[in-house]
Design goal:
Helix content is 41%, strand content 20%. By secondary structure, it is of the alpha/beta class. A hairpin with a 5-residue loop joins strand 1 and strand 2 (54-56).
Length: 173
């Protein structure tokens, strides 16, 4: 009996450590794949909240930098960031602002209307119906902001609330 215990305990420990190492490797590998994937604006398909039609990367203006904001209307940091963008919207005329949420379209629409963002040509509001954003852009807390230059190369990624000055600094590079 003691011989079995002496064999089983190390075996269980070995298997447990092996499993943990494998999971760590998977996590690092996924993180590296996402980092490569988002170096340029990745292919995506979300729904436009106004038309409920599919919207993809090819529909963006290829001449302008792009600011992606992933948000939730119940997140106070998201509210602050969207509110600050709204107050300074005239400084973003040279860029495209793509606002994306997993919330229902009615909720998203009411939220962006509150901050008068639907009336601007450079603002695109999208609904992530099938929860693809994090599969494409990686693990993203609310809010997460990605800034791409006019060549669609990633300039900066922010996880969490960001001041408008920082957004404009990287959009104007």
């Amino acid at each position: 009996m003691r011989k079995r215990i002496k064999i089983i305990i190390p075996l269980v420990l070995f298997l447990g450590i092996g499993y943990m190492l494998f999971k760590t490797y998977q996590k690092i590998d996924r993180k590296n794949k996402i980092a490569l994937q988002i170096k340029e604006i990745p292919d995506f398909v979300f729904l436009d909240i106004n038309s409920n039609k599919k919207f993809n990367k090819q529909q963006l203006n290829k001449e302008k930098p792009v600011l992606f904001v992933y948000f939730n209307s119940e997140c106070e940091h998201c509210v602050y960031e969207i509110q600050q963008i709204s107050y300074s919207i005239e400084h973003f005329n040279h860029a495209q602002i793509v606002i994306i949420s997993i919330e229902e379209p009615e909720i998203i629409k009411a939220f962006v209307q509150k901050y008068d963002l639907l009336n601007h040509r450079n603002v695109i509001v999208l609904y992530d119906k099938i929860l693809n954003f994090e599969k494409i852009f990686g693990n993203c807390p609310f809010p997460t902001t990605f800034i791409y230059d006019k060549n669609w190369e990633l300039v900066k990624q922010f996880k969490g609330e960001v001041k408008v000055e920082a957004l404009l600094k990287y959009l104007n590079m």
